[in-house]
Design the sequence.
């Protein structure tokens, strides 16, 4: 009963967001240029880097391209800006309209993300994937479909939770847009968007292993390709996804705790 | 001409005053820019540490390309690139009309209001990178420096032209922050030694879409690897700047006649 | 502000001459259902919208003209074309002897504009700094700048206010500074788009007083507003625009005259009023069992007869009689606007 009501709410919010975004689909479709162009640069870089060698950091040339191809797609699937949206609501005082609704804002935001990502699925993800496969000849076949899909879904949640927590800081730090942007940039670096984390110095790898960021890009990409290792640890696909699920659960608990603290502050201090 | 100089001075003064109203914010955004600029060099460093390299380029030589790129941004961005952001928000919010109410050329007003002192922060990251890169290289000759300076001017002209193209697009493509992603994607080619691209792509990047001129060509000159012939590259730079200006004005006309 | 041109023969040459001004633009139609939305992804049907249709009028030096009309009637579009920001689809405008959108730079150097909803001030720094920037942009000389600024500052009583960061100012103080910003280069013609929106009564009074005093010095004002008090206290001439066309171009008193001889009457009676019965009488609202508001058309029902008959039938305890408010005229014009046939005071100007 409750579940069906919530799912109806999520569907309604998701559909409204979908329509909102459909009007701006050309903005989304810019990814059809941006994604392949950035990928083309990667192709040239790695072609040069692999000149006269079979593997680099344990990855073959084909695997390296798969890494960036898959990482790009996961980036589009799990992309959101919940942080920006939330801090804008807090700073402009519009958050109060959400505090008055019988629905926690995080659920609203998650429903919104579901809405615009389902549009992205065929405006961004599918066309870019086809380009990668047929134009660049990248191997985009998941090593094992089930863990890959599960891992991408968890990445979707993880990225949302991390961004949402960043947004929640707006309840305490009103003018800290700069800090948040620094943080998000470091998030991308630590997630393995720019280069596989296995390239990092050992000590950094050990630290990154325990931070939530690798679960957004690095781990799901590695699971997709079929082989996970970081900080000298090799996990089977099942173990990797299990670890990711546990991390998402911990992050979700953290987010909920931070959310209720933020609400207490909102109602108490009236940010 | 004097009027324009006075305008520029007045705008710079107010922009600095605006920044000083939020000093901590200013410091943070400079920090952000520095960190952002260092990501690609950091990745390059990691790859070289893993034992790979761009064939024919030492780490310091590769970093020199990225250093020149950052320095060019450090000069072109405060003056020109800010207009992309201001056109984005002003056209969306309808306040761009206010610029049309000023008795000055609209392009000049758009560039002036976009003046962004934060971006001078890139000169910090650029200089650090430049220093690191040069520390591992033999000292360039005076001839190389001269070539470099001339080509560096071309580099700034190209970044200015790109700003005009992106800003112009925003009259039609209202409110799309994706132009920044497009900029990053297209100019990404310019952050690496041009020799890694196939010959046809290299030509494309020098003469058609001259992003290779932003950093690769000036850096090569500084490394003493090119002759006077390289200075032909100034032509496409001037060409694209002219095109950028024409495009911007054309899009502005579209805006004022369609508008609403 | 020094040029006192009021006494001049205004018939010589109008300050603004608008002929057959038309603006149409294309817009997308958007679907609502899932199927329509999905279809719209690939094809969006276009629709032509006539924002302004065939406007013609003139404005003389020193006039104060108000554009009125419901939201989306075409007021803003007209204002944008008159300021040279927007090109019309067809038609002509000559203002200050120039074509606004063709000789834009020359033209905008001589006009001023205040938009109630678009601030020209810079949020984080004091207005004084923004004024200084405009001085450079408009190329105002040092001495002239100082003199004008002093004059405006004392007239609007902003003194210290302009040295505080804009974000710390009240809306009223901010609006005063917006006016200074717009008047620093001594424009001959000033456009105001909802200049008093959101202001409290005192701030509104200040702003209106300022506009009146500038107008008495010969500055021509054209304003759009939804605040009918603005119109009553400022405008000599009112132009009602609806559906992109001029519905009425008249003086304020002329506009009132259109109501006929109607009065608004509020009554408390001894027994409840049962029906209308009388010709020329309509019940507007029943406020309580014994209290009622009615409208009396005195052409059909003289007041004397109305009072006598009501007193005999229901027994009048208390009563107030007022002119119908200007709102009543506006409501009528906005809702069925086009049925009103214009009787502009300068008929030769309006060529249909």
Sequence:
């Amino acid at each position: 009963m409750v579940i069906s009501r919530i799912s109806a709410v999520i569907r309604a919010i998701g559909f409204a967001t979908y329509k909102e975004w459909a009007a701006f689909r050309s903005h989304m479709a810019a990814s059809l240029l941006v994604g392949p162009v950035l990928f083309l640069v990667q192709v040239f870089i790695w072609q040069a880097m692999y000149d006269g060698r079979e593997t680099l950091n344990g990855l073959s040339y084909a695997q390296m391209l798969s890494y960036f191809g898959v990482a790009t797609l996961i980036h589009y699937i799990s992309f959101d800006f919940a942080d920006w949206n939330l801090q804008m609501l807090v700073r402009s005082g519009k958050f109060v309209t959400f505090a008055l609704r019988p629905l926690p804002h995080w659920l609203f935001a998650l429903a919104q993300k579901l809405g615009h990502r389902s549009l992205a699925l065929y405006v961004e993800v599918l066309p870019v994937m086809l380009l990668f496969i047929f134009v660049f000849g990248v191997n985009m076949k998941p090593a094992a479909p089930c863990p890959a899909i599960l891992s991408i879904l968890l990445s979707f949640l993880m990225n949302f939770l991390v961004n949402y927590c960043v947004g929640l800081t707006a309840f305490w730090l009103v003018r800290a847009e700069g800090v948040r942007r620094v943080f998000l940039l470091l998030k991308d670096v630590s997630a393995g968007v720019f280069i596989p984390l296995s390239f990092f110095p050992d000590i950094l790898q050990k630290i990154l292993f325990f931070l939530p960021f690798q679960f957004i890009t690095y781990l799901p990409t590695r699971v997709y390709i079929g082989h996970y290792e970081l900080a000298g640890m090799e996990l089977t696909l099942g173990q990797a996804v299990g670890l990711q699920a546990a991390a998402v659960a911990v992050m979700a608990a953290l987010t909920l705790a931070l959310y209720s603290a933020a609400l207490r502050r909102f109602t108490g201090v009236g940010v | 001409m004097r009027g324009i100089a006075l305008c520029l001075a007045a705008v710079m003064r107010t922009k600095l005053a605006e920044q000083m109203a939020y000093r901590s914010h200013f410091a943070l955004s400079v920090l952000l820019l520095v960190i952002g600029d260092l990501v690609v060099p950091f990745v390059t460093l990691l790859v070289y540490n893993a034992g790979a390299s761009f064939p024919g380029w030492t780490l310091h030589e590769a970093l020199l390309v990225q250093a020149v790129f950052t320095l060019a941004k450090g000069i072109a961005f405060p003056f020109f690139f800010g207009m992309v952001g201001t056109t984005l928000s002003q056209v969306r919010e309808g306040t761009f009309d206010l610029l049309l109410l000023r008795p000055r050329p609209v392009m000049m007003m758009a560039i002036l209001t976009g003046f962004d002192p934060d971006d001078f922060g890139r000169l910090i990251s650029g200089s650090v990178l430049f220093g690191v890169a040069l520390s591992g290289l033999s000292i360039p000759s005076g001839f190389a420096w001269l070539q470099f300076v001339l080509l560096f001017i071309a580099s700034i002209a190209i970044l200015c032209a790109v700003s005009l193209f992106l800003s112009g697009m925003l009259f039609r493509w209202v409110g799309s922050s994706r132009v920044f992603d497009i900029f990053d994607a297209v100019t990404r080619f310019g952050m690496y030694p041009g020799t890694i691209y196939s010959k046809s792509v290299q030509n494309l990047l020098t003469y058609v879409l001259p992003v290779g001129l932003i950093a690769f060509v000036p850096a090569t000159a500084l490394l003493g690897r090119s002759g006077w012939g390289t200075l032909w590259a100034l032509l496409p730079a001037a060409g694209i700047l002219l095109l950028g200006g024409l495009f911007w004005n054309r899009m502005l006309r579209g805006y004022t006649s369609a508008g609403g | 502000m020094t040029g006192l041109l009021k006494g001049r023969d205004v018939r010589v040459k109008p300050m603004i001459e608008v002929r057959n001004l038309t603006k149409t633009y294309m817009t997308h139609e958007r679907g609502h259902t899932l199927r329509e939305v999905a279809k719209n992804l690939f094809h969006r049907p276009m629709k032509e919208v006539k924002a302004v249709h065939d406007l013609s009028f003139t404005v003389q030096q020193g006039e104060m003209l108000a554009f009125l009309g419901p939201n989306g009637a075409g007021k803003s579009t007209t204002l944008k074309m008159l300021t040279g920001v927007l090109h019309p689809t067809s038609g002509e405008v000559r203002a200050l002897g120039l074509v606004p959108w063709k000789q834009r730079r020359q033209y905008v150097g001589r006009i001023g504009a205040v938009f109630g909803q678009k601030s020209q001030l810079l949020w984080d720094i004091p207005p004084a700094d923004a004024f200084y920037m405009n001085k450079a942009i408009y190329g105002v000389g040092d001495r002239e700048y100082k003199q004008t600024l002093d004059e405006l500052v004392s007239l609007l009583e902003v003194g210290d206010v302009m040295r505080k960061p804009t974000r710390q100012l009240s809306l009223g103080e901010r609006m005063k500074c917006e006016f200074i910003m717009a008047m620093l280069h001594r424009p001959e013609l000033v456009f105001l788009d909802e200049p008093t929106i959101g202001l409290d009564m005192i701030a509104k009074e200040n702003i209106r007083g300022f506009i009146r005093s500038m107008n008495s010095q010969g500055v021509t004002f054209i304003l759009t507003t939804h605040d009918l008090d603005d119109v009553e206290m400022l405008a000599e001439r009112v132009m009602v625009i609806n559906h992109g066309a001029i519905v009425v171009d008249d003086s304020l008193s002329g506009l009132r005259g259109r109501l006929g001889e109607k009065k608004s009457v509020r009554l408390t009676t001894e027994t409840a009023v049962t029906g209308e019965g009388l010709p020329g009488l309509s019940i507007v609202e029943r406020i309580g069992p014994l209290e009622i508001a009615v409208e009396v058309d005195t052409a059909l029902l003289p007041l004397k007869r109305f009072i006598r008959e009501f007193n005999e039938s229901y027994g009048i305890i208390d009563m107030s009689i007022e002119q119908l408010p200007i709102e009543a005229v506006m409501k009528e014009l906005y809702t069925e606007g086009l049925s009103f046939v214009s009787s502009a005071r300068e008929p030769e100007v309006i060529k249909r």
User: Anything to note?
Assistant: The CA atoms of residues 119 and 245 of chain B lie 22 Å apart. Chain B has one domain: 2-258.
